[in-house]
Design a protein that fits this description.
This protein is α+β, with helices and mostly antiparallel strands. The chain has one domain (3-179). The chain contains three helices and ten strands, in the order αβββββαββαβββ. It has helices spanning 3-13, 90-103, 135-149, and strands at 42-48, 54-64, 69-71, 74-76, 79-87, 114-120, 123-129, 156-162, 168-173, 176-179. It has an eight-stranded antiparallel beta sheet, with helices on both faces. Strand 9 (168-173) and strand 10 form a beta hairpin.
Amino acid sequence: MNTGRVVLAMLFISISHIAVAETADETKVDYSVIFDGLPWEFRHTSTPLKEEQAETSTRYDFVSIKPLKKTARGAIYLKADLTVIAYRSSETATEALRNIQGKAHPDMGLSYAWDYLLLQDKRLYHLHSGCVMSEENFDIMVKNLRKGISREGDIQQAALRCRCGGGCRLQQDSSSSTEQGIEE
C-alpha cells in the first residue's frame, strides 16, 4: 500500500469547509449544496484561476469524505468540480459558452465524462464529474446547482449538458433542448 497517497488523501479530505463569494457585491454562496439529496458527504477546496477577460474565476474541487472502495492500491473517492467564471459582460460570457460548445465532440462530449455548463448573466458555471457518478445523481447535482444560483429576476440563458461517454445538447431554457451537432 502506498502510504504517501493515503496520507495525501487524508490531508486533502481534512481541509475545512469554506463559504465563498465570487465578487464583493454577491452574497456568499455555499456550493456544497450541489450534493444535497445524495448519499455521500463531500469536502471541498477552492482555487483561484486566471481566465482571460474574466473578473474572477474559481475552481471548487469536491471529494467524498469516505471512500467508495478500498483496494490494495489505495482508496477510491467520488470527485466532482465546479468552475465559476464571472466575465466583464454578458456578451463575453455568451461567447465563452459558444467557444466551449464548439470544442465539444458530437459523440464524446467535452471530456468523455459528465459536464454541465450554465450561462447566467455574466457568469458561466461548469459542473464536471467522472463517469463513476450515475446519471441520476449527476442530474440531482445539476438541479441543485440551478436552484442554488437562481435569484429573483435572473434568467438562466443557456446550458450545455454533456453525457458521460456521449454527446452534448444545448438547452436554451429549462424546458427545451437540442442535440448538438453544433447549432448556432
